[in-house]
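We close this part of the discussion by returning to an individual protein. The amino acid sequence and the backbone structure tokens for this protein are reproduced below:
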Amino acid sequence: MPEESVLLDVEALPRLVGELRERGYTVIGPTVRDGAIMLAELESAADLPYGWGVETEAGRYRLRRRADNAAFAHSAGPQSVKDILHPPRARLWSADRATGSVTAGPDEPPRYAILGARPCDLAALGVLDRVFTGGAHTEPIYTARRDGAFIVAVECTEPGATCFCTSMGGGPDARDGYDLAMTELAGEHDDRFLIRAGSPAGAEVLAALPTRPAGTEVIGEARAAVARAAGAMTRSMPDEPLPDLLAAARESPHWTDVAARCLTCGNCTMVCPTCFCTTTEDVTDLTGEHAERWRRWDSCFDLDFSYLHGGSVRTSGESRYRQWISHKLGTWHDQFGSSGCVGCGRCIAWCPAGIDITAEAAALSAWRASEEEPC
């Protein structure tokens, strides 16, 4: 924890939201909606989920009341930074027959300030940056939303039961990719945030807030809270090169076992903070006078995802699950130089069949070890 960290009292949190709004940002942060912690535009800090935590397990996500009034002591919800910067739907163009006009591109996005980004989402943001802006041809919708975005990260002090970011290098501490980073120190009567800047823009905002010096005792308390979170995680990936494991397990009979449970619903790809695949669809009104083309998220679990002339390449649930996990943990390294998994655990919690990516990787590792045992 850098020594330049300072303390921000919980009573000053509204000033942080107000400062960002005054600087022209649309502030997005966590709030309670539809029985979950969701992301939405914040009018003020009063919209934050004070006093709410979550309970997660494979195929399970539930809100729970906390004894304290913490605002950010909850693990990752069904949405991530991806939902804001790589939106589920975006209009590519619209056309009107009567006027002969064609309007290209989505509307100009606002400048976003994302409050409460998890360290795993910072890691995911780094992955999306490489995917969408790392090559010769950048993706314009993502780039327009990403440029100038202000990121306020909150380090994790209470991971969910499905979290495994420590084994993927995605947390629970915020290492880079943020403008401001906070550690919430919640008590029954004393809520504080240890806060530090990670960019010139962050330092400028921090200078405008009513902070006070943080002593070594408080800094040590924050470090210990984050360290306890790391030690509390019970899930992890096998301690071996995952690309090699997935390549060696391509013909494993375990895929049949997964297929017997997988619904191929695509929930895992929708909640994953790094899955980025899209498709396009054309729509018209009932008169046929107005037409639009939209880009929307797609999933490799969709039967039409691998459709070529003559039919789909991956017709079985077995092949589609194998494609997803093999790309996520294996061939993603070949494409983008890192894993596509950041250990957020969303795919575990939001799988209706309770399929656990860490358990499936462990089963493949065990199968590989049994195959390599001498006869």
In short: The mean pLDDT is 93.
